[in-house]
Amino acid sequence: MANLFTALAPILFSAAQEVSAEDTGALQAITLNFDDKQVAKDDIVAVPIASGGTPVDFVPGNVSPQGDSDTASTVDVRITASKKRSWHLTGEQRRSLENAGTDKEWLRLKLMQEMRSLRNAAEADCVAAIVQGASRATGTAGTTPFSSSLDELIAVRRILKDNGCPMADAQFVCDSAAETNLLKLSAIQQAYAAGSDEERRSGVIKRQFGFEIRTSAQITQHQKGTGTNYLTNATTPMAKGDTATTLSGASGSGTILEGDILSFEGDPNLYVSHAGISAAQQVLRIGRPGVRQAIGTSTPISIGNSYTPCLGFDRGAVVGIMRPPVMPENPTMQQALISDMRGLTYLLLEIAQYGQITWELHLAWGFKVVMHEHVALLLG
Question: What is the pTM of this model?
């Protein structure tokens, strides 16, 4: 069959411009301009992380002293998903659409739906990566925030500021329930409190306490693990700043999942689990900057209830790699790159087969929190 790409070029462009879309606030809020052009699926990109030190007194002398020793560390980012959506038309089906004059419109609508499908899948993975890479949390699981004020947003800001987050490009991504509560607040609705009626008329919330406010349709409830009666290590306490403890073998059963909310007896802070646990004596990990106070030996660990997260973070804390996958040349396969209104670029293939044509739409991605300190969760 003849190649349709030349004839359909305007159709492909219009599909990219008119695609129907759920909110993808997480993808819009992270760093996506990372240099990943030569990275294939499952390859690792190492992002350098610089550690801090403790200031010491300056003492003049006739010989300059050697600088303190330091070890460079990295965070690995990789493309973890390479997904596609495919469909086909037989020669008879294509002729039927051509006779009705609907073949180009059918392809346009199909592309709209499949770009939407891939974009939503990438957004869901991005949200999950941010949740699992957070440092600490605030709020009440099971209670949608912002029922009466913006106080919960201030609590998120406090966590980030205490962790040293620069707040230069702070982002806050919530679900539609939290956004609905935000839009009901007098600070948003009433012109005298908001400064103008622009937010009420446009429905777009301006920056609040330094945060760019966004929404995501892919934020869902995190289901907690089944773990109970776990204790910190029986012989080695956790010092302030520690991010791991080997659980005591004296008790504990069930699972602790990545993203579970943890608290240690005697410590009011809420931490985010960074490693799955299924039995005692395994290593429990939390995000940097670690525990806010020293934790003694055999300290009981509590797992918080299931929750729906809102995400507060600095844009530079989360790296995203998104690109069309690499496809070798094939005489029976035509390739074209198309971009949607969000700036995501997809690979579209038209494959000539026996009595039919198959189309495939491809997108590859991977996400990683590279600065745990600059990510916090608001529970809802």
Answer: 0.86
